[in-house]
Each structure stands twice: as C-alpha cells, then as structure tokens.
Specification:
75% of the residues lie in helices and 0% in strands. With 185 residues, the protein is mainly α. It has 2 domains: 47 residues, Homeodomain-like (Arc Repressor Mutant, subunit A), CATH 1.10.10.60; 127 residues, Tetracycline Repressor, domain 2. It is elongated, with a radius of gyration of 18 Å.
Length: 185
C-alpha cells in the first residue's frame, strides 16, 4: 500500500458501498473497507469516525445546499417556493451521483441502524428548513419544513424505485404538486 494516493475519501466511500452491498453493513469492518480502497485502517479513521459516517459523511454539505438555496430565494417568494427551491437544489446535487446515491439508499434500507441514522439526517434537514422559513416570517415553519422533507422522501422513493424516469428534481416538483392538489381538495 502506498502511503498516499489522491481521492482517499472517495475511494473509501466507494469501497464501503461495494462491501456493504456484497456482505452487509454489519459484517463489514472498517479494516476491510480500507483494504478494498488500498488504504490503511488508520487512514479510514482519519476520514470517518465510524463505518456509518462513510454513508453519511456528505450530510452537512447537503444540509447546507438545502438551507442556502432556500434562503437565497427572493423575499417575496411563498413558503412553497422557498421549500421547492431548497429541495430541488438537493435533488440536482443527488442527480449528479445517481448510481452511488441509489446504491447507498439500498444499503441504508437493508439495516435498521442505518435507517435510524437516515431519519436523524432528515430531521436535521427539517430543522434547517424551519430556521430559514422562520427567519422569513413564514407561518408554521416547523410544520412546513416537516411536510417538505416528507415530500422529498416520497419524491426520492419514486425516483429510486424506478416507477418513473427522469431527474429527482422533476419528482420533487411532482410530489409538491400532489400535495398542493391534496390541500385544495
């Protein structure tokens, strides 16, 4: 093993996805992930605190994309437009890595501990959106943010499930339209 090669973080994430898919999250060790990536276990722990963080290491960046896009919407925008802009920004980000995002989703779906961690991530997204909405003076920002994250989950499931083709952002818009139609009924 060489002492240093570029893209160690990315290589570890790819190796982890491969191994988690092949043998399961619970049976994969950090040492096995590092070995598959051509790195040492010590290097693994320089990048990630534990095995879960390989899957959730981009969480902060995605939460920032969501909040920054929502906050950048013009002041006269409706809460729906604020939420839509934030969710679509995340969708565009995920679309650019569709294959690995779908592999990651399959690994998370296969393990209760990972599903719990995913819900914690989504709670953080909701809190970030609620803060943006509250700062903009929106009515019921907590409810709006929770509903927005649920809309995103539905859109993601449609996109990941292959029930319809297209980009994740289009599924987000469709799910928001479904919600709007429901509220009007």
């Amino acid at each position: 093993m060489s002492r240093w090669e570029p893209d160690g973080r990315r290589r570890l994430q790819e190796a982890a996805l491969e191994l988690y898919a092949e043998q399961g999250f619970g049976r994969t060790t950090a040492a096995a992930v590092a070995e598959r990536a051509g790195l040492t276990e010590r290097t693994f722990f320089r990048y990630f605190a534990d095995k879960k963080e390989v899957l959730f290491g981009n969480e902060e960046r995605l939460r920032t994309v969501l909040a920054d896009a929502a906050a950048a919407v013009v002041d006269t925008a409706t809460p729906r437009d604020v939420v839509a802009t934030g969710l679509e920004a995340v969708a565009v980000e995920l679309d650019s890595h569709r294959e690995s995002v779908l592999r990651r989703a399959a690994v998370i779906a296969s393990d209760p501990e990972l599903r719990e961690r995913e819900l914690t991530k989504l709670m953080a997204w909701s809190a970030a959106l609620a803060t943006v909405l509250r700062d903009r003076g929106a009515t019921a920002p907590d409810v709006t943010a929770e509903v927005a994250v649920t809309v995103f989950r539905v859109a993601f499931q449609r996109w990941a499930g292959g029930s319809a083709d297209g980009e994740l952002a289009a599924h987000v818009r469709e799910a928001l339209d479904d919600l709007t139609a429901f509220v009007r009924d």
